[in-house]
Sequence to fold (150 residues):
Amino acid sequence: MAGIGLSSAAFSDHTLIPERYARTGENLSPPLTWTGVPDGTAELLLLCEDPDAPAGTFVHWLVTGIDPVDGGVAPGQVPRGGTEHANGFGQARWGGPQPPVGDEAHRYFFRLYALPAPVELPGGAGADDVHRAVDHLRLASGTLVGLFQR
Fold:
């Protein structure tokens, strides 16, 4: 399976996400850039999840229907064509990192999936629902991991 290059001007893979992108900061979604979207991609799906959350994997951002022609998204914006879905905070928007004070740094996995057709997700879809829906459909994917600690 081909890979999508996913990066951010705000942080590098496996480095700290700046405070401005956290819920305790400006709560802006970070800038993201992607390359290598394969031919035949009808849409992109973006998921940001924290597998280190105390109650289990926590969804921070879920966006479907992203235009595959665009190569990224600016800070605080929704990717072109994208529809935001409810995150773990119950809001259909970016919900920045907010791990418990004193926890070791949590990992925030930004995953971008190239899909050959729109994906159907149940209302209130969690990370496992997204993985089940896209794992057998994806043409390619890319991952960027940011860290955050309070």
Q: What stands out?
A: Residues 64 and 83 are 5 Å apart (CA to CA). The radius of gyration is 14 Å. The chain has a mean pLDDT of 96. The first helix runs from residue 127 to 134.
